[in-house]
Write a structure and sequence with these properties.
By secondary structure, the protein is α+β, with helices and mostly antiparallel strands. The protein has 14 helices and 17 strands. The strands form 6 sheets. Strands 1-5-4 form a 3-stranded antiparallel beta sheet. Strands 3-2-6 form a 3-stranded antiparallel beta sheet. A 3-stranded antiparallel beta sheet has the order 7-8-9. Helix 6 (179-192) runs parallel beside helix 7 and helix 12 packs antiparallel against helix 13. The longest helix has 29 residues, at 212-240. It is globular and about 80 Å long. The N and C termini lie far apart (66 Å).
C-alpha cells in the first residue's frame, strides 16, 4: 500500500469518525440521514454504556444531527430536586440522585467541569459545558430573587423549553448561517475524496497528463476549498454562538488540522445549536409530520404514565411537592403547544385498538397488550396494565 493509499484510507476513516457523536443520557438526537430525518426513537446506535451511546449521523456533508435536552431537574418556587419523572422519547431515564435543595442552599451553587455542585452535593450534569453554564447562571439568578419574581421566571423557563417560535427561529438561523458553509464543505468533500480517488486510480479520463504540475493544481484547489470552508465555519459559529469564543477557537484549530473537519462543521454546529429544548418543540420545528405524531404521543403518555419509579426513594413531602409542581407546569406548557399544533392532548391517552382478540389489558405508557387482565409491563418499569 502506497503513501497515497494510506492518505485516502485516513481521510475516509476520519470522515466516518466525524459523522459519529456521543449521545449522553437524557439527550435526544433528531438526525437527518441521507437528507431525511430519522425518528429520535431509532438512532443508529453503535456502542454504548451508562455514560452514553455512540451514534452514527448522516453521511452527507449537508446532513446534521440536532440534539435536544429537557431540563434535568425539577424546579419550583420552593426549591429544586435532582429528579424528573418524565423521560420523553427515551427508553431509559437518566440517573437522578433525587437530592433536594432550597433556594437558600442554591446560592452556593457552583460549576465543576460540567457538573453543578453545592458543597460536595451533586445537583446535575447537563450534556455540555454551555448547557451547564446556562443552567448554573439561571439557578443562581433565581436564588437571588423574591418568591413572586422567582415563580414567574420559573414558569418562563419552562415555557422557553417548549417555545415553538424560538425553536423554529434557531433552526432557520442555522440554515441561513451554514448555507455557504454547507456548499463549501460539499465541494471540499467531492474534490478531496471521490474526485481525488478517481483521478489517482485513473477511474476517469482527463485530457491532461497526470504530472507534478497537475498535482500542484489539484492541491491548490484543495487548499482554496479548505480555506473557504474554514472561513465559513468561523462566521457561522460567530453568528450562531456569538458568546462561545473558546468553542470558536477550538473549531478553528481542529479545522486547520485536517480538511475532513470543516466538511462536518455544519453538523457540529447543529449539535451545539440548542441548550434546553423539549423534544416535542424540536419535533414540531423540523416540520416532519410522522415524527411529530410520535413525539406528541410519547410525550403525553410519558407525562401521564412516567417510567417507574415515579418518585425518588427516599423523598420528603416537600421534595414530592416540588416534583409535582414542576411536572404540572410542564404538562400545562405541553398542552398549550399541542393546542397550537391542533393536536388533541386527551386523544393521545386513548386506549389502543385491540388487535389481538385474546388481549385482556394494555400498558398505558407503551401500549403493549397482554393476554391477562392484571399484568406488569417490564418495558415501563413494571407498570401495571389497564384492562380493555
Amino acid at each position: 500500500m502506497s503513501d497515497v493509499d494510506l492518505i485516502f484510507v485516513a481521510l475516509i476513516s476520519l470522515y466516518l469518525i466525524e459523522t459519529m457523536f456521543w449521545l449522553k443520557p437524557g439527550s435526544l438526537a433528531f438526525s437527518r440521514v441521507w437528507g431525511r430525518f430519522r425518528s429520535p426513537l431509532s438512532p443508529i446506535k453503535l456502542i454504548g454504556n451508562d455514560a452514553g451511546t455512540l451514534v452514527l449521523g448522516g453521511p452527507l456533508t449537508s446532513d446534521a444531527s440536532f440534539l435536544c435536552e429537557p431540563l434535568p431537574i425539577s424546579i419550583s418556587p420552593a426549591g429544586v430536586v435532582s429528579f424528573v419523572p418524565a423521560a420523553p422519547l427515551q427508553t431509559e431515564r437518566r440517573r437522578h440522585p433525587g437530592a433536594e435543595f432550597s433556594w437558600t442552599e442554591l446560592k452556593a451553587l457552583r460549576l465543576e467541569d460540567r457538573s453543578l455542585m453545592i458543597n460536595q452535593r451533586f445537583v446535575c450534569q447537563p450534556r455540555n459545558a454551555r448547557s451547564a453554564r446556562y443552567l448554573c447562571d439561571t439557578l443562581l439568578h433565581l436564588a437571588d430573587l423574591g418568591d413572586s419574581q422567582r415563580s414567574e421566571l420559573i414558569v418562563d423557563l419552562f415555557a422557553s423549553t417548549l417555545d415553538l417560535h424560538d425553536t423554529r427561529q434557531r433552526l432557520d438561523l442555522w440554515k441561513q448561517a451554514t448555507r455557504r458553509l454547507r456548499l463549501a464543505a460539499g465541494l471540499l468533500f467531492l474534490w478531496t475524496i471521490p474526485l481525488g480517488m478517481a483521478l489517482y486510480y485513473e477511474l476517469i479520463t482527463i485530457p491532461v497528463p497526470r504530472n507534478w504540475q497537475f498535482l500542484i493544481f489539484f492541491l491548490a484547489i484543495l487548499a482554496v476549498l479548505w480555506g473557504w470552508a474554514i472561513i465559513e465555519s468561523y462566521f457561522a459559529h460567530r453568528e450562531l454562538l456569538p458568546a462561545d469564543a473558546s468553542g470558536r477557537s477550538l473549531l478553528l484549530f481542529t479545522s486547520l488540522v485536517s480538511p475532513v473537519v470543516p466538511m462536518r462543521n455544519a453538523d457540529r454546529l447543529a449539535r451545539e445549536l440548542f441548550l434546553f429544548v423539549h423534544p416535542l418543540a424540536l419535533a414540531a420545528a423540523i416540520n416532519n409530520q410522522p415524527i411529530l405524531e410520535v413525539a406528541a404521543r410519547d410525550t403525553v403518555r410519558d407525562l401521564k404514565y412516567p417510567l417507574f419509579p415515579e418518585m425518588p426513594d427516599p423523598i420528603s413531602e416537600a421534595g414530592r411537592s416540588i416534583i409535582d409542581w414542576s411536572n404540572s407546569i410542564t404538562t400545562t406548557q405541553v398542552k398549550q403547544l399541542m393546542s397550537e399544533l391542533n393536536i388533541d392532548f386527551n386523544q393521545m391517552l386513548a386506549a389502543p385498538p385491540r388487535v389481538n382478540p385474546q388481549a385482556q389489558s394494555y400498558c398505558p405508557r407503551c401500549h403493549d397488550d397482554y393476554t391477562v387482565a392484571a399484568a406488569f409491563c417490564s418495558r415501563c418499569g413494571n407498570r401495571p396494565t389497564i384492562r380493555y
